[in-house]
Fold this sequence. Notes:
Chain A is an alpha+beta fold. Chain A has helices spanning 19-28, 83-86, 109-115, 120-146, 149-164, 173-180, 184-196, 212-218, 222-234, and strands at residues 29-34, 39-41, 49-53, 57-65, 68-75, 95-100, 102-108, 168-170, 200-203, 206-209. Chain A folds into two domains: 7-119, Sandwich (Jelly Rolls); 148-219, Orthogonal Bundle (Arc Repressor Mutant, subunit A).
Amino acid sequence: MTSIFHAADANHLLANLPVAERDAFMATCETVPLTFGETLFQPTETVTHAYFPIDSFISQIAILNADNRLEVAMAGREGMLGISLILGVEEAPMLALVQGAGSAFRIKAANLRRLLPDSPVLHQRLKRYIYVVMSQLASSVACNHFHRIEERLARWLLMTQDRANSDSLQLTHEFLAMMLGVRRSGITLAAIALQTRGLIRYHRGEITVVDRPGLIEAACGCYAEDCALYNRILL
Amino acid sequence: MTSIFHAADANHLLANLPVAERDAFMATCETVPLTFGETLFQPTETVTHAYFPIDSFISQIAILNADNRLEVAMAGREGMLGISLILGVEEAPMLALVQGAGSAFRIKAANLRRLLPDSPVLHQRLKRYIYVVMSQLASSVACNHFHRIEERLARWLLMTQDRANSDSLQLTHEFLAMMLGVRRSGITLAAIALQTRGLIRYHRGEITVVDRPGLIEAACGCYAEDCALYNRILL
DNA sequence: AATCGTCGGCGCGCTAGCGTACACAACGCG
DNA sequence: CGCGTTGTGTACGCTAGCGCGCCGACGATT
């Protein structure tokens, strides 16, 4: 590799680590493909691995019961899945579903635990990431409570676009309804509104972001705040 | 002190620590009184202290804007305030308001930072507490979205009662409305319903829990799940 | 070219909760 | 004792979103 960028840089939490830490991590991790729809964690089950997405992304979904479920967090290249392990807990808090196929670095729980005491930079970065996720969860409580479907849909599309790194997303209204915890036809109405305003275009399971700045405008402020928080704490 | 219980045991996170860790903590902390309505943290401001409530309790409130605010977490004898410090971040994520007057152990940010590396039991316990709070935040996103006011009110009263250690709570409908992020008269209706069912009694700013088991029944399952999670992870 | 499953548009009646506003009762203070 | 303040009950019209269900259109398969 002649580039100054190492393969590990593909995940932001692993980028620019001290060489010793990076090598130690890469020596004990493996690269795995994740397929769309794959379940990585079931709530309360034991977490055996942590995942650091490269070009995949994962939805974390809170389940109240069969009919009441909704996405509360998303992990892509900018983050990780398996926070519990950093906190010394071996159970998964929520359902983790691969929402964007791709690959990820995967590391065994025991290896990660062994690694962290000797990787102060990584360890610190992961703890700060946990802070970001917690803060975003806190504001999501308010966002899901106060903001309407159209704003939340816009926010969700932006977050997904960031992680998918593409203007075109493979998503049905049905799926979006599950993510936002609303009715399918509620999504249809919101999507029509966004399309009419020229912000997105869609057709049978494919949504294209046409006007990203406009979409940011249409989204609730929570999107911008989430970005600002991430940059403030992790960059 | 002839009792086998030490003063530190008044906060569950500090109870039954190894003597060395307990002494180190108690040597650098102070006991402070907290008065009702006091603001301990403002969002994004620097956190100078962590608090371990003894018989006080503190609401953590997410603020979207002047009109849209709602409580997302509560810290009493069973927990702490100032999680950011454990994660190596010095800013506060939310507004922290004293909701039940009483006292708390208070420790300076720098002292806590210095203490933790030599206090493995406490450190581990605090990390596991963070996991509990995160999981509760995640399910709160869903709870606030799907459950109705009456169920959420019942849950909130139970959580408050646990921390206040009293059947009688000093609360106005106005205040409850702010906590749950709803209209004042929405609380009045829910309170009437609960009183009619003989679960609570209230009068001008004082609410009394009459039938706790019944109230648990009336609350959404989130209350029981929160308790179960706490016990599973921290006991 | 016919078929069939998936996806999206739409309608209908309904409910929870909103914003606003007013009235009354209890309490605290001078 | 009278007064203002605070807390609670209630009413009215309104909106977002629900549950349900139907239909048409698209696209893949054969």
